[in-house]
Amino acid sequence: MRVKCVICDKIEALDDESIIAKRLRNRPIHTYMCADCHDRIRDKTNARIDSGNFRLYRTRQEKDEW
Q1: Cα–Cα distance between 36 and 38 in angstroms, integer?
Q2: Residue 60 C-alpha from the chain's centroid
């Protein structure tokens, strides 16, 4: 299966029986991102977290008395 990265438009070939290929076939809303782009985003996000300028807004979970 040939796939295209949504960020850099790099075309790669995936094995037809791989789990990633099956997810892309069965759920068209999912997109493919190459390993280089994935690593670059991970590194930049971790750098932002370490700098202190990154806020992750999560919903508060209320404690049940039950």
Answers
A1: 5
A2: 24
Backbone φ, ψ for residue 27 (5° rounding): -130, 90
C-alpha pair distances (Å), 23 with each of 11, 28, 47, 57: 17, 8, 30, 28
Which residues, other chains included, contact 53 with Cβ-Cβ below 8 Å and sequence gap of 6+? none
How far apart are alpha carbons 53 and 8 in whole angstroms?
26
Tokens describing residue 30: 């999912």
Residue 61: pLDDT band with limits 50, 70, 90? confident
Cα(first)–Cα(last) distance of the chain, in Å? 51
Sign of the alpha-carbon dihedral angle for 25, 15, 38, 58: positive
The predicted pLDDT at position 65 comes to: 74
